[in-house]
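Private note to self, pasted from the team thread so I don't lose it. Backbone tokens:
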């Protein structure tokens, strides 16, 4: 069989993702803050992009007569600056006296940072009678304390960081546990609470036994066996429990380094009369325009410069078009969600209907992937609070009349029922399912109620039960 070279024509179709198309898709799924950063970056890199300034109208000044002009001069004249050294204090001197002493210091340096647990303990060790040797060991110990205040390293692990004996490490851990917050650097919840009881002077043997041996029984509400064991009444046991609740099992949480997550809504929805008004959040978003200076410079540019200018001009025009398309798509998606979920905007979460991406995509005549991207990390401010756009898409549960209700609505109803229940006789998952079926005509199984309850972080009925 011989080998030979041949030329063959073949016609095929393929999708090519141009850089411009990739940029447009990326802009769709960016959050609002990420979009602002992207636009600012493009403004810095592309000379053809410019930020349009908002024109402010200057009110016309009425012509003043000669006498009125003299009165205006007397009223507004800067006489302190005019008198200079002949005045008791010049305006410049007064301004210098009132200057902030921090002038010249960066803005970040003027802000006090939130104290950390590690820094707080280091500060106390430096101000206490700890030796340099103890501080050296203490740095290794404090570096292994988690955000709840518990020591997560054994003596062997600490010894691998700094040479020390078990006696030195145990003595230092004992001293750190008595610093503020009391109970920090403990290895178990029992040890943490015992240290706090020692410092506070709680030396009751029953209380100490409850903390040392029966925390699991208290967590599972096994009160009656404990009352029989210690030969005390339920009222006396309640007094011990009230005393234990004054202790802090997680002393390090007040120094947690986690910062709150702030959300800036992309869309605002207001009710005006019987209609809902949609307003896109344009706060901080620069208004882009083509730079006229570089547009005029294209005429006299040489061939290589023209290629560069044309490339940057096309990039700027495509960015402006992509931003417009993004805002237009976001508006259409929110408008469609309002049509599908109008009862939610009227009443609240309990009226949230089942909705899928395909329904919104067909309503606005776009692809599901586009709807998925534009609803990612986007938030809307409604009359009932701020929600992520993904919140409005939820699965369906069947009703007895053949209609459907959204799973988020059922979750809200379950949460409301548990909030209103008798804490001494909490509702079981099976009972909640029966109530939903009898009164609200929702077909829901007990395991589905348990799944929704767990997803909302609500404990079971046995753990919600209160005996006192």
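Design output:
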């Amino acid at each position: 069989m011989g080998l030979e070279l041949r030329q063959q024509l073949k016609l095929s179709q393929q999708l090519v993702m141009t850089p411009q198309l990739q940029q447009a898709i990326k802009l769709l799924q960016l959050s609002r803050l990420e979009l602002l950063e992207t636009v600012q970056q493009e403004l810095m890199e592309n000379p053809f992009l410019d930020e349009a300034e908002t024109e402010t109208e200057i009110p016309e000044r009425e012509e003043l007569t000669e006498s009125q002009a003299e009165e205006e001069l007397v009223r507004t004249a800067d006489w302190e600056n005019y008198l200079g050294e002949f005045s008791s204090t010049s305006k410049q001197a007064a301004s210098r006296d009132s200057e902030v002493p921090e002038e010249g210091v960066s803005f970040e340096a003027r802000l006090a940072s939130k104290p950390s647990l590690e820094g707080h303990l280091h500060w106390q060790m430096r101000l206490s009678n700890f030796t340099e040797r103890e501080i050296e060991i203490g740095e290794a110990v404090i570096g292994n304390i988690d955000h709840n205040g518990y020591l997560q390293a054994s003596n062997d692990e600490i010894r691998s960081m700094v040479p020390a004996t078990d006696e030195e490490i145990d003595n230092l851990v004992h001293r750190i546990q008595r610093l503020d917050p009391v109970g920090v650097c403990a290895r178990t919840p029992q040890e943490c609470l015992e240290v706090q009881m020692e410092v506070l002077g709680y030396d009751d043997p029953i209380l100490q036994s409850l903390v040392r041996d029966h925390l699991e029984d208290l967590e599972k509400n096994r009160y009656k066996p404990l009352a029989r064991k210690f030969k005390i009444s339920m009222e006396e046991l309640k007094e011990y429990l009230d005393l234990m609740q004054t202790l802090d099992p997680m002393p390090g949480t007040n120094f947690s380094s986690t910062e709150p997550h702030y959300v800036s809504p992309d869309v605002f929805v207001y009710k005006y009369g019987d209609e809902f008004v949609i307003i896109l959040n344009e706060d901080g978003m620069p208004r882009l325009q083509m730079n006229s200076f570089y547009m005029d410079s294209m005429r006299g540019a040489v061939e290589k410069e023209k290629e560069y200018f044309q490339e940057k001009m096309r990039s700027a025009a495509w960015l402006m078009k992509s931003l417009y398309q993004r805002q237009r798509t976001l508006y259409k998606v929110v408008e469609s969600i309002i049509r599908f979920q109008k009862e939610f905007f009227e009443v609240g979460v309990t009226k949230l209907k089942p909705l899928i991406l395909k329904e919104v995509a067909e309503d606005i005549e776009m692809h599901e992937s586009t709807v998925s991207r534009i609803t990612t990390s986007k938030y809307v401010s409604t009359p009932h609070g701020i929600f992520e756009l993904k919140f409005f898409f939820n699965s369906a549960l069947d009703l007895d009349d053949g209609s459907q209700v959204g799973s988020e609505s059922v979750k809200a109803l379950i949460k409301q029922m548990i909030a209103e229940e008798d804490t001494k006789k909490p509702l079981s998952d099976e009972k909640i399912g029966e109530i939903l079926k009898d009164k609200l005509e929702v077909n829901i199984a007990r395991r589905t109620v348990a799944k929704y309850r767990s997803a909302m972080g609500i404990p079971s009925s046995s753990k919600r039960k209160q005996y006192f």
